[in-house]
């Protein structure tokens, strides 16, 4: 009986994983975005490339996925971090204006494809923002820039992808803007707030605030976000603003929470938000 239960649970997990991969396929199959893989020092990263469309002197928009399915429940780590609902892929596909690339986090969308090299649980649990992850995401952006023949980037991160965007931005000199959507800006304050296990193998954002406050930033918050409460995000924004008089803006959307309805939001507002970051001295 115990063996049958294990096999049944394993089958359920496979069904959930298959659905996650199928969801991305359904979202992209009628789009003009091209499925691709980016090989980095340690990982094969899933990506999608937009059609070539904006002027060659404009930045490449880099969409960074959230944390995905890190846990099945409070006691069980997911065997595959591919998101059940691909937050940032849904967002990226709404960008009809700029040259763009979507980059999934390490081990998302690749394990079922036999490309999950070096995948281990720490990469989507307490080490989701560790040195190897950030270095390889940074390398992937270099390769996307070369492939798209662009010189600069705007980084757009959703949920935990915002932390990745900030940590990557601190390593680069070509970032023209950072946008977060329901973004996690400081994982230490977040784990304290929810009284959950600290991400002990992850890099902190506090030490890099001085490096990224020179980069224009726009943070969009959902008023009803209970996963990353507004107060946590605004506190981090104020910390950055206290370093220098930085151009860091935020807006709270009254009808939004952590999950709803960021694709529709981005379809409506991505043009003015991204255009504001390509024009010196303008706001959102």
Describe the structure.
The protein is an alpha/beta fold and 284 residues long. The chain has one domain (2-277): 3-Layer(aba) Sandwich (Rossmann fold), CATH 3.40.50. It has eight helices and ten strands. It starts with a helix and ends in a 7-residue tail after the last helix. Residues 1-13 have low confidence and may be disordered. This is Alpha/beta hydrolase.
Structural features:
two-stranded antiparallel sheet, 18% strand, Rossmann fold, globular, 284 residues, AB_hydrolase_fold, 10 strands, Alpha/beta hydrolase, alpha/beta, 8-stranded mixed sheet, 8 helices, 36% helix
Structural class of the helices, strands and pairings? alpha/beta
| CATH topology heading | Rossmann fold
- Tell me the total number of β-strands: 10
Q: Per DSSP, what share of the residues sits in E-state strands of 2 or more residues? A: 15-25%
Query: Which strand order do you get reading across the main beta sheet?
Result: 1-2-6-3-7-8-9-10
Protein name: Alpha/beta hydrolase
Task: Give the gist of this structure.
This protein is α/β, with parallel strands linked by helices. It is 36% helix and 18% strand.
